[in-house]
Amino acid sequence: MSSRKRNRDCNKQVPLPLHIYNLLAVGFLLVVATLQSVQAQQNSNNDANREGKDSAESRCSLTSERQSWDNLSCDEQDAFLTNIRRLKRNGIYDTFVRVHIENELASHGTPEFLPWHRWFIYQFELALRSVADPPYKCMSLPYWDWELDAGNEGMSSVLSPETFSSFEGINQSGRCKFQINRWNGAGSCLRRTLNSNFRFWGEGRVVAIIRGYTQYGDDFPNDRTRLNGFRAALEGGPHAAPHNFIGGSMVDQNAPNDPLFWIHHANIDRLWSIWQDYHGHTNISFRSYRVPKHYEGSRIDIPMPFGLTTTFTKPWNGWDFRIRNLRTPTPREVLSNDGFLIKVRYIHKNPVPSEPGYITNRKWFGTPPIQIDQCLHRLDINSPRRQLQTKSRTLEDEEEFIISQANTTYHNETTLLRGLSKKQYTKRQRLSIFPPRATNSINNDDKDIIFVEECLRSNNFDRFQDRENWNKLCKKLPLTHSTLKERLNKLSFQDCEELGNPRSAVDDDWIERIGMSNNKAAFDCYHVADENERPSS
Q1: Residue in 262, 210, 204, 258 with CA at minimum distance from that of residue 487
Q2: Least reliable range by pLDDT among 177-181, 231-235, 300-304, 354-358
Q3: 486 in a structural domain
Q4: I need a labelling partner for 424 at 20 to 30 A (CA). Which of 74, 249, 389, 401 fits?
Q5: Average pLDDT over every residue of 98-122
Q6: In total, how many domains does the chain have?
Q7: What is the CA angle 288-290-295, rounded to 5?
Q8: What is the CATH number of the domain that holds 120?
Q9: pTM of structure
């Protein structure tokens, strides 16, 4: 046989048996069906999450009313904690953590810090509703008003074994009570360090920056010693301190791994809302916002980043942060808590000792009823907060309390004072915390007495240390020559001195990581706003 013929014979393909073809065809069809099933399931999950989100939004069309964690009933607290665990089981919780990690540099140390987290926690509120059982389908995200725990951080009710400490460590079977994931190949149990070197900001210091900083943006971004922007002051001081006290996940980009993150940032959003309202931002069109009074930088109309990289499945797997699947919101679109995207109303006592003329926006704020079904047994027995909450008031005490609050507290007719007629209530509402100014016919000693009285009557702090220190200031300072702002600044410096005057609320690596090295003054124990030293340009 010739070599050419042998080659032709060798090149001939021998047909496979029919049963082999059949097996290959069946295998191919199974692979295709599996891929289609996986894709369908993934689409179904995304549709279900989208449907759950839309359902939560449409079913709960009324304004979300957020209350203090300590004002919730035990059942409300338990429902919140239960829904946290449900979100963890269905994977949505970890999606939120991952979004926070991958967008850290765009949402920290930047103008977007406050609006980005406002949208972030609002979406988490919708996620909680999507897994809630009746009667909590319209539950709101509570806030942790940690300024009342300042100086007694370890006694906070959020650290009760029945509440957020129930997520920490391992259970009896040796498994994590709440497993966290850092996406570096390692998972671990939630743990906290509770670093007492970091102390919360009390009411006095919080009120001081709300009143003292009149603009959102900083005119001195390249000067580490100067600061006059509220956003940097809030992020650097009162926001950073609880993160660093709690420790564990809370000190890095994995912070949402700790469920305390959500109620902490709800309080940050509340403080921003108070600042907006106090300086009149709630009474103007948000389309009229300008830099740096209402915001800072040029990205106010640029959609904020909430996406994930392709290394973590699909960009919107688990939860969709976009507006109706179109795009993410811009900062301007979420600057209002009474806008077309967000409607949130914070229920709280007025935290700002204010002068006549300041009336809070009722669409943004409401007053809690006098009688609240609270979960007081979860408060530490020695906690000043518990002593405050359990203090009984007679009707006479209640009336005196309202007289001192008459021009600062916002009431509605459904929560009128017990025992007061509407006529009496209206009369008390018209009273000012400041009596009429002294006339020239009154001698200086009498003037000083009047000024001391009006200073004392402006004391509506709940935190014992702030109440006591404020009263001392009223008696010590030359009140005829000191403004309310000056007294608040003095109160804040006293607070820092009592705490040992720590240089900073955080370590230097935190400042470097979030890109605020040029705003180190924001991390001081207290820093007076450079309001009178702005550049002429």
Answers
A1: 204
A2: 354-358
A3: yes
A4: 389
A5: 94
A6: 1
A7: 115
A8: 1.10.1280.10
A9: 0.81
